[in-house]
Amino acid sequence: MSSDPDSPESADALLERLRTEPHRRHNPLINEWILVSAGRTHRPWQGRRETAPTDPLPTFDPSCYLCPGNVRANGERNPDYAETFVFTNDFSALRPDTPTDRMVDGLLRAEGEAGACRVLCFDRRHDLTLAGMPVTAVRRVVDVWADQTSELAAMYPWVQVFENRGQIMGASNPHPHGQIWAGTALPREAAKEDETQRRHHEATGRRLLLDYADQEADGPRVVEANHDWLVLVPFWAAWPYETLLVARHPASRLPDLNDGRRDSLAAILIRLLARYDNLFGLSFPYSMGWHQAPSGGADDYWQLHAHFLPPLLRASVRKFMVGYELLAETQRDLTAEQAAEDLRAASAVGVAVGRSLDGRAGAGEVAAS
Ligand SMILES: [Zn+2]
Ligand SMILES: [Zn+2]
User: What residues contact 278, with CB distance under 8 A and at least 6 apart?
Assistant: First the structure.
């Protein structure tokens, strides 16, 4: 680690001093800064507290749009699927037949966006989560993610695989499921990461996130590691317990992964999600998603990775991105190093049950999404 050339201090010593003082950190993946104000987590909290219903979920819910054999909002009946099930979202935000016309009128620009929105049920059982599923079942989910990516990447430049888990993340249906959206344009976050990774590759001949993974390996921000994957709280994390899951060998998309790397991915996913659930002893809400190289061009600059963006700061206190975050820049109270230490201290085995921030509302995400 090299430090500021104008300063005689080492980078580690500088960071140690900065850690207890308000400071900014740079996110090279999107070329943006965040403000870190360590110590503010001790301030008294009188705002909203998330509640934790204690009802255990049934293995099958007759009112769930995602359970096998049930009728969805558009009248279609789900098959009696045995493992995973993919279907086109009944209320898709993107449709394949949309014309991609462009409109420019002075400062006003618009363009049609064609695409697809699919829902992926991870398991037939209503009460499971990825963290509680056997490794073979999570491996099946990895395979479906990869297969869906291949299929949609043949038609669209951007394929977004993601999961919203927990009612406070907008998933009011607790049935284990994720989504896959594909579109014609590079969305905002993809465009930022495309630019930075291209530039780094042009300048160095290497992939930005492989360099980052090498720099962080065995360091204070690592949460989980195996031969193929690294999970860390990124130096520039915005959400309190945000993590980044990076492939440690060159890979641009999920379909690039061989059997061994898919198995080790399933294993590390379960360990990470168990740590999240065990951190506060509840079913941890999050948005997660894969960032894969856009299709249709060179892809050797882009390193496959996933972001986990959980909102909770404490068991019943969520971080809101408001005020300064919306108007100036993202601010966090907990250092990335402290968050990584907390996650390492939580068990990576076994899932806390009995407490959940998920409600059991019947009108599920599928009806709304
Ligand atoms: Zn269900
Ligand atoms: Zn990314």
Answer: 346, 347, 348, 350, 351, 352
Q: How confident is the model at residue 43 (pLDDT cuts 50, 70, 90)?
A: low
- Round to whole Å and give the CA distance between 313 and 317: 6
Residue 63 lies in a domain: yes
Question: How many CA atoms does the CB half-sphere of 6 hold within 13 Å?
Answer: 0
| Tens-place pLDDT, residues 308-341 | 999 998 888 888 898 999 999 999 999 999 999 9
Provide the CATH number for the domain around residue 138: 3.30.428.10
Domain of 296, in residue numbers: 25-38+58-355
The pLDDT tens digits for 61-83 are: 999 999 999 999 889 999 999 99
pLDDT per residue as tens digits for the range 45-65: 666 666 655 578 999 999 999
> What spacing in Å lies between the alpha carbon of 159 and ligand 1's midpoint?
25
Between CA 340 and CA 242 the distance in angstroms is 9
Residues, CB-to-ion distance under 5 Å, ligand 1: 61, 64, 66-67, 126, 175
228 located within any domain: yes
Tell me, what's the pLDDT at 171?
A: 78
Number of domains the chain is built from: 1
Could you tell me the distance, in angstroms and rounded to a whole number, from the CA of residue 231 to the centre of ligand 1?
30
Catalytic residues: 177
Please report whether residue 48 resides in a domain.
Answer: no
| Rounded-to-integer distance, Cα 114 and Cα 97, Å | 6
pTM of the model: 0.91
Question: What is the whole-number distance in angstroms between the Cα of residue 166 and the centre of ligand 1?
Answer: 14
